[in-house]
Design a protein that fits this description.
The complex is a heterodimer of chains A (840) and B (312). Chain A is of the alpha+beta class and 840 residues long. Chain A contains 25 helices and 37 strands. Chain A is flat, with a radius of gyration of 45 Å. Chain A starts with a strand and ends in an 8-residue tail after the last helix. With 312 residues, chain B is mostly beta strands. Chain B has a domain of 100 residues. In chain B, 0% of the residues lie in helices and 54% in strands. Chain B contains no helices and 25 strands. Chain B has a four-stranded antiparallel β-sheet, with no helix packed on it. In chain B, strands 6-7-8-9 form a four-stranded antiparallel β-sheet, with no helix packed on it. In chain B, strand 3 and strand 4 form a beta hairpin. The radius of gyration of chain B is 19 Å and the shape is globular. The chains are: A alpha+beta (840), B mainly beta (312). Chains A and B meet through strand 29, strand 30, strand 31, helix 1 and helix 2 of A and strand 1, strand 2, strand 3, strand 22 and strand 23 of B. Chain A: Belongs to the WD repeat mio family.
Chain lengths: 840, 312
């Protein structure tokens, strides 16, 4: 059981707790939970434990205790007892004590050492006729720490309130004392003179538990019943705040490390209420106290069986120096430390910077250069790097794969797309099913179409070949143009098995699937798989042969999936080749290639459908082999996106391979927009522009209408759009710049009204003419203008003074000048425009 | 908490007189705004090369602690909203004034002050830029206001008593959520959390915002909600944190926007104040009352795992 507790003000790692005896605990570091503590220790937080270092059993159930705040006290404490005695005592082997006894026996209600002047101890007592309620002792007077006491000699230094009750006492700085009196007043006494002076009085019933905010000494709190009053001693007539509680209050305490934070314990409550009164001044006219309130329930670990979040608290104590630390005690003796932290802000910026505050005035940042991002494997960091390297923008599809070389699946996809495109280009004239598609998958090639019933049909017809050259009974194979095209997409080719990628066992398996057993054995023999080669060489198609029996029993235990597939094929483990088709360690390409040779049409179609669904479910990019880059691939890519958050890959795939579907697919548009947002937030403007150009190149319908045109001064019509506006205008705008000299001459006047265009302020020729004719060709520095010499003759003008001319002329002018070239105009055009920075 | 990586933190003194309540970077990462107990908002330029900060302006106008700030999308200019204990939301706009000598002076003006709440305004959040200048704010009076700039003035729509005892946080849904709505439909949604321990989802319908779903799971005040950015993902998730020391990820597996499955991250040692998603929405940062920041990511095991913790 613990009645009350207090942290030692001097030795701040010591805690006093008392009930029938007074215990002094020492804190120590301990292993975090769930490690067992050594015996005698009690856990007080996740990393701290308490051990009893001293015990005082002579004064059971003291009314009040206050630890001596001076540095010379050697752990001295003052105890107030029910009989009115005040004992000064220390812990130790020989208990040294001193006793102050009042003339009349009555209960000690309150006592407090003066923190600023530790000699002074104020004691508040119950009422006694013609005796004082408050006595202030000076412990430096008289003999100190003598064994045996001279209570008759000791007199209080000051006495206050004759025949009154002191409900509670509290020092305000060095020489003022607040006393809650008679249940009616709080009186503030000024003790600077030898004669105490009453400086102010507040009439209130809240005379209990007076406490002073050490950080802001004119702020005082007290309570009565279920109300807490906050006072300002400079304006003591009425309370500054009244805080209502639902239950009776039993203890108050200001946080010693932060201003204006008042902890408040209600009776029969398992939590503390914390009031932040710093901003209370705000809403006085409303009557409603503008106090921030929080509840603090100690977070006991589950291992602590004696207390949980509903255990009633008996008391609490703030730690005097450690920030935010508050220790609570329960009636059944559980002491637990909690931290009252400030709210921390935390924000993740779009640019991958994570910032948070520390509850004070500083902000902490980490950005993507931090190690943390490596461990996060944050896709946005990867995407940004890839975007900077031009991912998705490379002319050759396979070059994009090199940028994502760290992701094998993506790299292989780009390589395959490149391969698929050239293969399709070559074959599309013989194969009607792919004539309109650029990136067909197996589904397209095999003419698979969903029917209304949710099933899939196909119109392919294949030729059945009975292979006499091979000894398997089941060596029927199927062939059609479509099937062999799919096999090519899978990277299968009979002619060049040696050029295949992958391990020798893969090559051997594919050779075997082309019914070339000898070649397969040869490949295995040449690699370090000669044992397997030997085993295969013993192949017998006899249904009951020992070879088959043993191979069937054992091949499942082999680790190499391709060797497993070889045995499954030779032993005909099942007539439908299920073992091979569902061998998940074989690549999709090899399984599909195999199916194209050995499955009859209906089975092939259902196999393709089944495996496509599986790939879509897994978001596996190898499934693109089945769906192609057609609208069928969208669910697969969406799934991939959901799993990886790699919106970049799906967006660039969309513009590079599905441009014609963008207009009709809201999902594709969404991916593209989100990726453009990303590029925007990374300020990768060039990359975004290139992305837009690529997006629109394959799909002119997406090109936005120009928002700005140059219009004629006279008729107000666009000089770049002779005749019809609207359709075709965009191309004309560009054609204006791609001109011959002849065309330039033609456009030196407005196409609508034939009035001349303005003159260049440097060469004084009308715009639309070739540059500075008559003089030598201007020195063109390609680097400075980009690779577009036509841009040199563009018309540009200052947004402020509206003077302008040929770009190249102005560029040369402003290389040495700051003012506008038009005489009389003092506009400092070049300084106004920060965006346009001419390289010097 | 396996293999947690350590933070290498850059710290920066905000120059505020008192505790900071919020710090937000703009969309481009070039500006930082902070707000504090000292009633001010401070704006900094961020050098994107070396990450250094240059003080730009101190915005005075609030009469109480400023709780939160939010940047509007840069397509609407340089604009900032702040909300405070003084019951106000202030919209600040940066304007450029060119002096005769060609120098540019940046000025900050409070372009609009919204004073429609009866108590502290705790949270502001800008809507996705697709919907124009639109902002939601939640107040201790229990109400939420949606402010939208239309026809050169601020239109006000108010949800009274959205959360009993007060609303602590608001967070907009991404503009398009392919799993919830047809993509050609514009559905405006946001989530809010409050002192009734609830997370609520609101949807615009006929010019009003109606409660679409109420997510029950926290046992104490909800302190923050964060709707995951979509970046094209179809998963709909909302993170919320509470005084009850838990963080819940709400997953809308059915894609109906109504039935959300709660997934509890962990019970922490102290109150959790804030949650924030990274830009693609696959990592969640959590800040605890115990002055700690931890990062969480869903792993292949389908469990949320702590990948880093500032206290380690």
């Amino acid at each position: 059981m613990v009645m009350d507790l207090q942290w030692s003000p001097v030795l701040t790692d010591q805690l006093l707790a008392w009930s029938q005896e007074i215990l002094l605990y020492q804190t120590e570091e301990c292993e975090p939970l769930p490690t067992k503590l050594r015996p005698g220790c009690i856990r007080v937080s996740n990393r701290k434990a308490l051990t009893v270092v001293a015990k005082l059993s002579d004064y059971p159930f003291p009314k009040v205790i206050d630890a001596y705040p001076g540095t010379d006290g050697e752990g001295m404490i003052a105890l107030g007892l029910a009989n009115g005695k005040v004992i000064l005592s220390t812990f130790g082997t020989t208990v040294v004590s001193k006793e102050f006894v009042p003339k009349h026996t009555r209960q000690v209600n309150s006592l407090q050492w003066n923190r600023a002047n530790p000699n002074f101890l104020a004691v508040g007592l119950d009422k006694a006729r013609s005796d004082f309620a408050v006595s202030i002792w000076d412990v430096s007077l008289g003999s100190k720490y003598v064994n045996g006491y001279h209570s008759d000699v000791l007199r209080p230094k000051i006495e206050l309130g004759i025949s009154e009750t002191a409900n509670s006492v509290a020092w305000v700085q060095a020489r003022s004392l607040l006393v809650g009196m008679n249940g009616k007043h709080i009186k503030l006494f000024d003790l600077r003179d030898s004669q105490p002076k009453l400086s102010s009085t507040a009439t209130t019933k809240a005379v209990y538990g007076i406490c002073v905010d050490n950080v802001c000494a004119h702020r005082v709190a007290s309570f009565a019943e279920n109300q807490v009053f906050v006072w300002d001693t400079r304006n003591f007539e009425k309370p500054f705040l009244i805080l209502n509680h639902s239950k009776h209050v039993s203890k108050l305490g200001w946080c010693p490390t932060r201003a204006g934070l008042l902890a408040c314990l209600e009776k029969d409550s398992s939590s503390l209420t914390l009031h932040d009164v710093n901003h209370a001044v705000m809403s006085t006219e409303e009557g409603e106290p503008a106090v921030l309130e929080r509840r603090l329930t100690p977070a006991y670990p589950n291992e602590l069986e004696l207390a949980d979040s509903t255990t009633v608290l008996s008391s609490f104590a703030w730690h005097p120096t450690e920030e935010h630390l508050i220790t609570t005690a329960t009636f059944n003796g559980v002491i637990w430390s909690s931290f009252v932290y400030e709210r921390l802000t935390l924000n993740w910026s779009p640019t991958s910077i994570l910032g948070w505050s520390d509850g004070k005035r500083t902000i902490n940042f980490i950005d993507n250069t931090d190690d943390i991002y490596t461990s996060l494997d944050d896709i946005s960091v990867k995407m940004k790097l890839r975007a900077k390297n031009g991912y998705g923008l490379k002319a050759q599809l396979r070059d994009n794969g090199n940028i994502v070389a760290d992701d094998e699946d993506l790299k292989n996809l780009w390589t395959w797309l490149d391969f698929c495109k050239s293969l399709t280009e070559k074959e599309k004239h013989h194969l009607p099913s792919i004539s309109t598609v650029t990136f067909p998958g197996a589904q397209t090639v095999l003419k698979m179409e969903s029917n209304n019933g949710g099933g899939v049909t196909s119109t392919i017809k294949s030729e059945i070949i009975n292979n006499s050259s091979f000894d398997l009974r089941n060596s029927k194979t199927y062939r059609s143009e479509e099937r062999s095209f799919v096999q090519q997409l899978c990277g299968w080719s009979v002619e060049s098995i040696h050029d295949l990628q992958g391990t020798p066992t893969r090559k051997a398996a594919i050779a075997l699937f082309h019914l070339k057993l000898r070649l397969a054995i040869k490949i295995l023999n040449e690699s370090d798989n000669s044992i397997v080669a030997m085993a295969i060489a013993g192949f017998s198609d006899d249904q009951n042969s020992l070879w088959r029996e043993l191979a069937l029993a054992k091949f499942n235990q082999l680790s190499d999936p391709y060797i497993r597939a070889i045995f499954a094929f030779l032993t005909e483990a099942d007539s439908n080749y299920e073992t091979i088709l569902h061998e998940s360690e074989l690549t999709v390409a090899d399984r599909l290639g195999f199916a194209c040779s050995f499955l009859p049409d209906a089975k092939l179609i259902s196999f393709v459908q089944e495996i496509s669904n599986d790939m879509i479910k897994k978001g596996n990019l190898y499934g693109i082999l089945l769906t192609g880059m057609t609208p069928q691939s969208i669910p697969l890519l969406q799934r991939y996106l959901n799993l990886t958050a790699d919106v970049q890959s799906v967006a660039v795939l969309a513009i590079r391979t599905m441009a014609s579907d963008i207009a009709s697919s809201a999902i594709l548009k969404l991916w593209i927009e989100r990726y453009r947002d990303l590029l925007d937030s990374w300020k990768l403007w060039d990359e975004r522009a290139e992305f837009d150009i690529l997006k629109n190149r394959n799909n002119p319908a997406l090109i936005p209408q120009p928002e700005v045109t140059v219009s004629c001064n006279f008729c107000g019509k666009s000089i770049s759009a002779p005749g019809v506006p609207g359709i075709g205008r965009s191309t004309q705008i560009f054609s204006r710049f791609i001109t011959t000299d002849v065309k330039l001459k033609q456009t030196s006047c407005c196409p609508s009204c034939r009035k001349p265009l303005p003159r260049c302020s440097i060469c004084l020729l009308h715009m639309g003419t070739i540059l500075g004719s008559g003089t030598e060709q201007p020195v063109v520095d390609m680097y400075k203008i980009g690779a577009c010499p036509e841009a040199l003759s563009w018309y540009t003008w200052c947004q402020t003074c509206r003077h302008g001319g040929h770009t190249v002329h102005l560029q040369q002018w402003f290389r040495t000048q700051a003012e506008c070239p038009v005489s009389g105009c003092t506009c400092k055009c070049i300084n106004l425009d920060r965006v346009l920075e001419f390289p010097s | 908490m396996s293999s947690s990586a350590a933070f290498a933190v850059v710290t920066f003194d905000s120059g505020h007189q008192d505790m900071i309540h919020d710090a937000q970077m703009d969309f481009l990462g070039t500006k930082l705004a902070t707000c504090s107990c000292d009633k001010t908002v401070r704006v900094y330029d961020v050098n994107i090369i070396d990450g250094s900060h240059t003080f730009l302006a101190q915005l005075k106008g609030h009469e109480g602690p400023v709780w939160q700030v939010g940047w509007a999308h840069p397509r609407y200019g340089t604009m900032l909203a702040s909300c405070s204990f003084d019951r106000k939301v202030i919209f600040w706009k940066q304007t450029e004034e060119v002096k005769s000598d060609g120098r540019e002076i940046l000025k900050w003006n409070a372009t609009f002050v919204y004073e429609g709440h009866d108590s502290s305004v705790n949270s502001v959040c800008w809507a996705p830029p697709e919907w124009g200048l639109m902002l939601a704010c939640g107040s201790s009076d229990g109400g939420i206001t949606i402010l939208s700039f239309e026809n050169e003035r601020w239109e006000i729509r108010k949800i009274a008593a959205a959360h009993m005892l007060g609303c602590n946080a608001v967070s907009w849904a991404p503009a398009q959520m392919p799993s919830l709505d047809r993509l050609d439909k514009q559905v405006k949604r946001f989530a809010s959390g409050g002192c009734d321990n609830m997370v609520k989802i609101w949807r615009e319908e006929n010019d009003h915002f109606v409660e679409e779903a109420m997510l029950e799971g926290h046992r104490d005040w909800v302190r923050d909600v964060a709707w995951s950015p979509s970046a094209g993902l179809t998963k709909v998730k909302i993170a919320s944190c509470s005084q009850d020391r838990s963080v819940i990820i709400w997953n809308n597996k059915e894609g109906d926007g109504i039935s959300f499955t709660p997934e509890i991250l962990q019970r922490f040692d102290d109150v959790i104040w804030h949650v924030s998603w990274n830009f693609v929405g696959d990592v969640l940062a959590v800040s605890g009352g115990d002055n700690q920041v931890s990062l969480w990511k869903k792993h292949e095991s389908d469990k949320w795992e702590c990948i880093s913790d500032s206290s380690k």
